[in-house]
Amino acid sequence: MDIKNTLSQNNTNNPHLLGSGDIRQLLGQYSFPAIIGMVVTSLYHIIDSIFIGQGIGAMALSGMAVTFPLMNILMAFSTLIGVGGATLTSIRLGQKDEHGAVSILAHVTIINALNAVILGGTTFIFLEPILRLFGASEALLPYAYDFMWVYLLGTPIGFVFFSLNNMMRVSGYPKKAMLSSFLTVAVNIILAPLFIFVFGWGMKGTALATVLSQFTGLIWVGIHFLNKNNYIHFEKGIYRLSLKTIGSMLAIGISPFLMHLTSSLVVSVINGSLIKYGGDLAVGAYGIINRVATLFVMIVIGLTMGMQPIVGYNYGARQLDRSFKALKYTLIGAMTITTTGFLLGELFPGWIVKLFTNDLEMMRISERGLRITMAAFPIVGPQIVISNFFQSIGKAKISVFLSLTRQLIFLVPALLVLPLFYALDGVFVSMPVADSIAFVVTILTFLYQLRKIKRMAALSPMEKTVSATSL
Questions:
Q1: Which comes out higher in pLDDT, residue 449 or 144?
Q2: Closest-CA residue to 39 (of 341, 349, 385, 406)
Q3: With bands split at pLDDT 50, 70 and 90, how would you rate the model's confidence at 8?
């Protein structure tokens, strides 16, 4: 398959422009659709929580918050394959290996479908004890269970949709990937209030709206990859799995996988501490805080999603200066985003919380928790970007380490110790403390790697090619 002979080099969807176009324009071209998609998706989760809080009640918000660890585990397994495949696709395209990119498309689709059936089915069987393990009390269990059993039925749909949408984005169609998010969110926002307020289906209706919206998105991306005019598409002879390819995907995807997995562990520890020091309403309050913080984190992730194909392609093409220029612009944007979140959380917490609930006690806990949690938020953006940069160039070990520092190595000990002295406030204080320490470690790690890059830049062209593989 010779893409260059079938498609015009001037096509703006041509992924090979990643190696020659203006970095800022490319970052805007690839990041803006991803950011819009992430914002729309995050706003959906926020609006969904508002529907739950206003239409079902404060305890339903807490019940929904209990499901976050389990949903993070499910997302971890989907991301393991999806992000690994997307990153590997960028590198293959940078190496002008279109056949390899098409093969990865088949791997991502098949493995994630099997992954979802096995994982979703197993979770469904043991759903109640799993929810109890993650902190569901007798009062919260019915809400959490009603949502999750419906959501689990749609796991194969969600897994394949998110993976293929990532593949669409990195293969030269970021705008179509953005439209996928618009489509799913629009369907969800239409169906959720209908199922909750009109049909009275409660948490089951919320989950059903989510599954149906993902099914709509799956149809959209499926049509895209069945189109033979696109850069990579489904075709005969690509469905034979390779252990080497699977191993490469897992090695790259292990960083976001562990990030989601450790996030699940951390949220479980947080929920346990919240119930101990603040009760069921404190769990719901953190659910509100988490939705707000996640909005800004997802914008940063959208920015890094735009950075990823640029960095991955140019790293594969051994154009390291372009990879680091993309990193610089992404860092500036990320810090701007998380600083905005910090200012809103510190200055207007009351206005934000009132959108979700009218329960006075939950409002009180949420406002104070939001202010404390967002205290170190400006430095969260750069930490995420640098971690994802190493992921984008296939350096899984460094990316995994940096991801673990923020979400596990520093945060869990803080969650276990600080509440002993500051009770409920200690749970919230743990987060900015961990963020600050992780940021310092990230900067030191990056500076060490940067010295390696500078030494490499002084080598001859042939030596650069050899040394780039050992960075």
A1: 144
A2: 341
A3: very low
Tokens 């609930």, located at residue: 357
Which residue is associated with the tokens 């905005």?
340
User: Is residue 217 a part of any domain in this protein?
Assistant: yes
CA angle 306, 311, 317 (to 5 degrees): 135
Asked whether residue 352 is assigned to any structural domain, the reply reads yes
Q: What is the pLDDT of residues 198-209, one digit of tens each?
A: 999 999 999 999
Residue labelled with tokens 């996640």: 294
Chain Cα centroid distance, residue 221:
19
> Apex CA 284: angle with CA 281 and CA 286, to 5°?
115
Side chain identity, residue 79:
T
For the chain, the domain total comes to 1
Distance (Å) of CA 64 to CA 50, 214, 288, 456: 12, 19, 10, 50
Q: Distance from CA of residue 420 to its chain's centroid?
A: 32
- Residue 4 belongs to a domain: no
Structural domain range at position 327: 17-468
Report yes or no: 71 and 267 within 8 Å, Cβ to Cβ: no
In total, the chain counts a number of residues equal to: 471
Instruction: Find out whether 392 and 253 touch, Cβ atoms under 8 Å.
Output: no
| Cβ neighbours around 233 below 10 Å, total | 16
In a domain, 431, yes or no: yes
Higher pLDDT, 361 or 449: 361
User: In this predicted model, what pLDDT tens digit does every residue of 380-404 receive, in sequence order?
Assistant: 999 999 988 887 777 777 887 887 7
Q: Which two tokens stand for residue 237?
A: 């002879």
- 58-90: burial string, b at 16+ Cβ within 10 Å, e else: bbbbbbbbbbbbbbbbbbbbbbbbbbbbbbbbb
CA separation for the pair 70, 64 (Å, rounded): 11
CB atoms within 10 A of CB 42: 22
Nearest Cα to Cα of residue 70 among 158, 145, 137, 138:
145
Q: What's the confidence (pLDDT) of residue 417?
A: 94
Cβ-proximal residues to 395 (8 Å cutoff; 6+ apart), any chain: 471
Report the sign of the C-alpha dihedral through residues 413, 45, 197, 369, in that order: positive
Query: For residue 187, what are its two tokens?
Result: 């369907």
Model confidence at 45, pLDDT cuts 50, 70, 90, reads confident
Q: Are 313 and 90 in contact (CB under 8 A)?
A: yes
